[in-house]
Design a protein that fits this description.
Helix content: 25-40%
Number of domains: 2
Structural class: alpha/beta
Number of strands: 17
Oligomer: single chain
CATH superfamily of the largest domain: Spore Coat Polysaccharide Biosynthesis Protein SpsA, Chain A
Radius of gyration: 23 Å
Number of helices: 15
CATH topology of the largest domain: Spore Coat Polysaccharide Biosynthesis Protein SpsA, Chain A
Distance between the termini: 38 Å
CATH architecture of the largest domain: Alpha-Beta Complex
CATH class of the largest domain: Alpha Beta
Largest sheet: 8 strands, mixed
Amino acid sequence: MGKLGETAIIVCSRPDSKRVPRKVFTEFPLGKNKKTTLLMALLSRLKMTGLPIILAIPKGSGKDYESYLSMNNVHLFVGYGDDPLKRMSEAAKKYEVKNIIRVCHDKIFIDPILIKRALGIYENMAVDYLYSSFFIEGTGFEIIHGQCLHLASSIYKNVEHISYAIKAVTKNVYNWAIPMSERCGHRILVDTPKDIKVIQKIFERFKTKTIEVSLYRILEFLRIHPEITAINKQPEATIYTCVYNCEKYIEECIKSVVRQKNFNEYEYIIVNDKSKDESLEIINEYAKRYENIKIVNNKKNIGLSSSSNIALSMARGKYITRIDADDYYPSKNAVRELINCIKHSDMDAIYPANYFGSKKTIQSGEENHHVGGAIFNRRSINDIKFTDGLRGYEGLDFFHRARNYLRIGYLANPIFFYRQHDKSLSKDKSEKRKQIKEKISNDYRTAMA
């Protein structure tokens, strides 16, 4: 294949997508009966950097990408199905690339000038990994040293967001903070059907110049047209609750959520796990009154872990927090306090303190990692997810896995009331739950050995 040079851009792509099927082949108008696809527009924009581009795709999808091989300086790598980390690593080895600029295939308006600036910082600081927590959604990228990429690939398999795997193998990282003046709340990636509508408006405005137009001009256009940015505005946070036979407590839980200040800026997902009591009737009454409450009815009882994963797959908020069906928020400012805490930190997750069965007893989040009540960046919790099918100690299992990936912080203030009653899982001392706990701990010790 030959060496491409020390630095190359790798775009991991696949034709399938859960939220927007075949989104990379979505067509946008360029005017005068001309069109381009999302991926073609992205590759054309990346070519402006002058760097070689590797399009890394899974096996069996070559025919979908044949037309892109005619583009100058674009090289195709095929392999490793659903493991983008492995695919990137093998592509970098094949083309003997030392520094990898990783770009996701739906980041259509990445700024070539920002890439060059970031590459200069990466080289001058001699770091292994450069990323930014503050890129505008749809313009982010990362720069990874090949040795770190290969090491992470050998340890971590099938991770959705590879940044956590890279950070786990090196501390020589740099979080490049884009100046406040360059940040905004706009969303210009393609992850939902509504995102496509916004991108469509941008192409209609700039037509044939869309690919070359600066990111600044695109953002200025969106600034003066708030009706466009409103199309795909995401809720600031997703709150979710999983319910199974909790008619005695669920109303107090829901009431504590809907009375939160700024509740209209959040979405609330309630997963009914095939309850046999009156829980669903209570939930439905509140869903009729609040349009941002979404109900999911499981066809069969699947447990808290699997129900949580259903909520995560639907969540659109920048931050995600769970409140369990038998717990509640004592304060109207609880969720806002959680959001402010994680927003103004460099953390991926915040575990707060709680009132443990009584307002007189405060339980530390640092000593008791109760995942119900904690808040996460959406990307971070989706990278870990819950263990499907696990029934019992799902919070312990989650924390054991999360602590190796995520930056975890703590909030001393008690945020939620952790109810204790006869049916509380924390009071279940059965032999079966004891065995589950021992297995989780043993699996974790084995993984760390």
